[in-house]
Design goal:
This protein is of the alpha/beta class. The protein has helices at residues 39-42, 60-76, 87-96, 118-124, 153-165, 176-186, 209-217, 228-231, 241-255, 271-275, 278-281, 283-286, 307-314, 319-338, and strands spanning 17-18, 48-52, 81-83, 99-106, 126-130, 168-170, 191-192, 221-224, 260-262.
Length: 339
């Protein structure tokens, strides 16, 4: 889409939310436009992205460095970016044409046994938190672990503290039993911010029907990703938008379109870094894909988001359902948990 092409009303009349839009590097501008923070994301109609702070962090200093960077980004580029801490901020970002950043953690290993740190990080701006990454930690099992014994006692305490603080729980990387335990203990709507359907693509990072149903029963949502390993089809060499939409259709048919959202997992990375980190560490998850094929064709960047409402409309979704998938369903959960 050209920068001068007007967005369709479904991408401009209400907030559009990406439940996993990368990290702080996702808003860094190109070298030829050094002040254009977030413009490439807004060009696709996206108003708000959930960004991961300090992935793989094992010390508090690493986390605090990322909070410092986020604060400075939004202070010094306040005409372009703003921190999202409450639902009113999402509406303000949309009305002002700025890009809102929701700060999140993927894994709480770094907190160790310190559940009392949860409200402290909430005051710093943490609004979404995953219990685990792919591995087991002190709270429970990650989705790639061969054994999942569910939440530990410390995990139960952490889940309760997240709910008490008003932080949305993200179970995308949790093992099946661990995620179901957390859903039972959280007492509120939960999110799988960036996970697809295991029944469509049997990747160990994707969700079973039981997980999808359990999230929906809380009033929660599943954010569907254009990440190619999660959309993989054995009989296709190149994945396209059809492979992504197949997952949206599946979730909508299983639990209803009010429980579907977008969590693209679009993250800017270098080829050497990604292929010697994620691909090397998790070959059973990544499979045959390399950086050039990391996303389905047609949805590599946030600027391509207009293909989503267009594709949903062609598949027979009503306008209110499309608006819900693009942001309304996620906003419902945020409003309930954030208060």
């Amino acid at each position: 889409m050209s920068p001068d092409t007007p967005l369709p009303p479904v991408l401009s009349d209400a907030p559009v939310i990406d439940l996993l839009g990368g990290n702080l590097n996702s808003v860094i501008p190109p070298s030829n436009a050094p002040a254009a923070y977030g413009d490439h994301v807004r060009r696709g109609g996206v108003n708000v992205i959930h960004v991961t702070l300090a992935l793989y962090a094992r010390d508090i200093e690493h986390l605090l460095d990322d909070f410092f960077d986020a604060f400075n980004l939004c202070d010094q580029m306040g005409h372009k970016l703003m921190l999202i801490e409450r639902m009113a901020d999402i509406h303000e970002a949309h009305a002002s044409g700025r890009l809102g950043l929701i700060l999140g953690f993927q894994g709480l290993d770094v907190l160790r046994h310190n559940t009392q740190f949860v409200p402290i990080f909430h005051r710093l701006g943490l609004r979404v938190a995953a219990l685990t990454y792919n591995e087991v930690n002190q709270l429970g099992a990650g989705c790639l672990e061969p054994r999942d014994d569910g939440l530990t006692l410390l995990g139960v305490r952490m889940v309760r503290e997240l709910r008490r603080a008003g932080i949305v729980i993200d179970l995308s990387h949790a093992g099946v039993r661990t995620s179901l335990d957390a859903i039972e203990r959280y007492d509120g709507p939960v999110m799988f911010t960036h996970s697809n359907a295991h029944a469509v693509t049997p990747n160990p990072r994707n969700l079973t029907d039981d997980q999808i149903r359990a999230a929906a029963a809380t009033g929660g949502v599943v954010g569907l990703a254009s990440y190619a390993p999660f959309c993989h089809q054995e009989d296709k060499d190149t994945l396209d938008l059809e492979d992504f939409f197949r997952h949206i259709d599946y979730v909508c048919e299983l639990v209803g379109p009010e429980h579907a959202a977008i969590g693209s997992d679009i993250t800017p990375q270098s080829k050497v870094k990604w292929e010697n980190a994620t691909k090397r560490m998790y070959p059973d998850m990544v499979g045959r894909y390399v950086l050039e094929t990391e996303y389905v064709e047609g949805l590599h960047t946030h600027a391509e988001f207009p293909v989503i409402p267009e594709g949903l409309r062609k598949r027979g979704y009503a306008e209110d359902e499309i608006r819900g998938i693009l942001g309304g369903n996620a906003a419902r959960v945020f409003e309930q948990i954030w208060g």
